[in-house]
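Same chain as my last thread, 129 residues:
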Amino acid sequence: VDTTAYQRRVHGGEYFYENGQRLKKYRGMGSIEAMDRGESAKRYFHKEGTVKVAQGVSGAVVDKGSMKRLIPYLYKGLQHAAQDIGYRTFDSLRADMAKGVIRFERRTVSAQAEGGVHSMASYEKRLYK
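reply #2:
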């Protein structure tokens, strides 16, 4: 969700149409354009008057539209996840979280990969026999 919101909101820019497709200008943090505007000086240790070496790109990305149309899908996904662990409502889930009956842990991408089936050429997932 974070990445989706970030890509739709933070990558501000001017919209334009090309070949019937709505595009948005994209300027990467390490791009020459960002350096010219002074936006990446701290991150890339760039000093005014020195040679600039691009560490990013500039271009155009396809506009993905507003995040508003995704919210019902995100809500339903969360609702199904809550039901999967035995909660019919978010209120009951929240109440049990406050009481310490249930807790959630943040897992890194590496931990998620390690927690699932990995490093196999093929496998068969059987839910019941």
